[in-house]
Amino acid sequence: MQFDIDPIPESNRSVRGKIDLTTSTQCNVEPFPGARIGCRTYRWAMNKKIRFLLDRQEIRDVVTRYFISADRRDFVSLVDCFVPGTLVDYSELLPVSSGTPIVEVAAMIDSAMSGLYSNTQHFMGNHECIIDGDRAAVETYCLAIHEYLDDAVDDGTRPTSALRYIDQFVRTSDGWRIGHRKAVRDIALQFPPRAVTMWQPED
């Protein structure tokens, strides 16, 4: 990064003798060759980029919290990932309509998990996030693995689904929340069980 600096008052210099970009407007910044901009414009551009990165991470954190809450059976935390009263479309996963309140869907997931599965794991994969002001279009891939409470069910196989969650996020006073969701099942498999043995070194 290169700086073209005009003579400026000593008060605008940092204690190390360098330019203080937070106060000086009498310099030009060249973030890459051939692109010279003023310090104020540079700060604005950097702040916008930082804001985008922070928003993107917060949105990803909400999606992560949803999956972890589902696996931990913490459905209060799961519902908190959504704007209160949000209608969701889980019709490809559950016997519900395409516009069911998330509270009802969460109760149905809770009932299904507690009655069928001993453990579940939801792994996040690809994550696309397009932010536009206070709204964001988000799509997340997920691999969901389930283990039955009763090994006799389906010959002890492990139901596994490749899912996509298509979300509309909104910025609220409590941070980013899901304002609408459509859950899509792309692939459904039944993996046969296989005993896992701990590796032992050879004698």
- The CATH class assignment of the largest domain is Alpha Beta
The helix content is 25-40%
**Number of separate structural domains:** 2
**Could you tell me the strand content as a percent range?**
35-45%
Largest sheet entry: 6 strands, mixed
Placed side by side, the strands forming the largest sheet appear as 5-4-9-8-7-6
Can you walk through the features of this model?
This protein has 2 domains: 2-33, no CATH class; 74-191, Roll (Nuclear Transport Factor 2, Chain: A). It has helices at 39-72, 75-79, 102-116, and strands at residues 2-5, 27-32, 35-38, 87-89, 100-101, 117-132, 135-148, 158-172, 175-191. The model is unreliable at 1-27 (pLDDT under 50). The protein has 3 helices and 9 strands; from the N terminus they run E-E-E-H-H-E-E-H-E-E-E-E. By secondary structure, it is an alpha+beta fold. 27% of the residues lie in helices and 40% in strands. Strand 6 and strand 7 form a beta hairpin.
Essential attributes:
203 residues, alpha+beta, Nuclear Transport Factor 2, Chain: A, 2 domains, six-stranded mixed sheet, 3 helices, disordered N terminus
Produce the secondary structure layout.
Blueprint: E1 2-5, E2 27-32, E3 35-38, H1 39-72, H2 75-79, E4 87-89, E5 100-101, H3 102-116, E6 117-132, E7 135-148, E8 158-172, E9 175-191
Parallel strand pairs: 4-9
Antiparallel strand pairs: 1-2, 2-3, 4-5, 6-7, 7-8, 8-9
In short:
With 203 residues, this protein is of the alpha+beta class.
